[in-house]
Write a structure and sequence with these properties.
With about 400 residues, the protein is mostly helical. Helices cover about 85% and strands about 0% of the residues. It folds into 2 domains: about 200 residues, MFS general substrate transporter like domains (Growth Hormone, Chain: A); about 190 residues, Growth Hormone, Chain: A (Up-down Bundle), CATH 1.20.1250.
Length: about 400
């Protein structure tokens, strides 16, 4: 158990640094593009959007490929490949000479990354059965905290130092992750091969597809409200400091997610992940709608904190249920496909939320996300029950 805990926290550090590396560019990218010689606002917006969006697109396409190779050649090798590649590419950013080069580097980053998906599958495979949801919940806090701290760190360092300093420091952290993985993680390939041929399960492909859809919906809802939150804060808060309050509102769900995800995961190991998924989907759906009813920023922060609690029980439990539902030899590819659904949900949510808000009232976005979550909860309940009954032979 001590060996597993050490491996879990080494992977946690790696996921944290890579998530930080992927997200730290958000507030400084337009400034960096301008620093490289582009002064036209349209050009800055174009290259910034392209450079930011091309990374998750590459991750969506290549995650299943890296997951398949991880099952074949070992997850440790995939973790080393991803951390070394991201460290080099992040360092390369500080030496970029043009916006086109930045876009190229970000595209390559999306292609070579795959660290989080490899870590999730690795931890899911080696975790004791009674601690799967807890371990995945703990690992998810690394991604959340890295995504939260990354933009804050990027903006803070860029304010007091050169922008390239941000890239240099994050590259150093990811390199540290590479070193710790290389020296302190030991993958028992023999046990892994034995598990692949002994841990046979009756797979329900429809339930697996429903879980893929659930992952997509979770990310669609989470990122669907992101483009409009600052506008909504401006509507309900008339006392200035909009940037500060908008940042607090956005970050509040991540903060509660960080605190509750491991606790909910531990509880899910006792009662089963399916119950947590159903209740959390309903709870998050209601909370997303409650956002539209808030009349001041303090109420909005409270609701966002509640959403973070609900979200803390979703992705880790989806991953835990996938492990229970999938034959071990197919686990890597299935987790890779689930990561693809996650990245597609990020993209479609951010893009779709903005489109809906542009043609309807902002409150309609919250209502639409609520509707999607509740429908997903009901669909999940139906097919999850069928899966249980089919396993019982009924």
């Amino acid at each position: 158990m001590e060996k597993f805990n050490k491996t879990l926290w080494i992977c946690w550090f790696g996921v944290f640094t890579t998530s930080m590396g992927l997200s730290q560019i958000a507030p400084i990218l337009p400034l960096y593009i301008k620093e490289l010689g582009h002064v036209n606002l349209n050009e800055i917006a174009f290259y910034s959007g392209l450079a930011f969006g091309v990374t998750p697109l590459g991750m969506a396409i290549f995650s299943p490929i890296w997951a398949f190779l991880g099952a074949k050649y070992g997850y440790k090798n995939m973790l080393l490949r991803a951390s070394l590649g991201m460290s080099i590419l992040t360092l390369w950013l500080s030496f970029a000479h043009s916006a086109t080069e930045v876009v190229l580097i970000r595209a390559l980053t999306g292609i070579v990354s795959g660290f989080t998906s490899a870590a999730v599958v690795f931890i899911a495979v080696i975790a004791p059965k009674e601690r799967v949801a807890y371990a995945l919940g703990t690992l998810s806090t690394a991604s959340v905290s890295g995504s939260l701290i990354g933009p804050l760190f990027g903006g803070f360092v860029a304010e007091f130092f050169k922008i390239s300093t941000v890239f240099d420091f994050v590259a150093f952290l990811i390199a540290c992750s590479f070193v710790t993985i290389y020296f302190f993680i030991h993958e028992d390939k023999k046990n892994k091969e034995v598990q692949q041929y002994t841990d046979k399960k009756k797979e329900n492909k429809i339930l697996i597809i429903v879980l893929f859809a659930t992952t997509f919906v979770i990310q669609f809802g989470t990122f669907g409200v992101m483009p409009i939150l600052s506008i909504f804060v401006e509507q309900i808060h008339q006392y200035g400091n909009l940037a500060l309050w908008s940042g607090i509102v956005v970050a509040s769900s991540g903060i509660s997610n960080l605190f509750f995800a491991p606790k909910i995961g531990k509880f899910a190991d006792k009662i089963g992940p399916s119950k947590i998924i159903f209740v959390s989907l309903l709870f998050c759906g209601i909370c997303f709608y409650l956002q539209s009813l808030t009349t001041n920023v303090y109420m909005l922060i409270i609701v966002r904190l509640l959403i973070g609690v609900g979200l803390g029980g979703l992705l880790p439990c989806v991953n835990a249920l996938l492990k229970k539902s999938v034959d071990a030899k197919n686990l890597s590819v299935v987790f890779g496909l689930n990561q693809t659904c996650q990245f597609l949900g990020n993209f479609c949510g951010a893009f779709g939320g903005g489109i809906i808000a542009a043609y309807f009232k902002i409150e309609f976005v919250f209502a639409f996300v609520c509707f999607v979550f509740i429908i997903n909860a009901l669909i999940f309940l139906v097919f999850e029950k069928k899966y249980i009954f089919s396993n019982m032979g009924l």
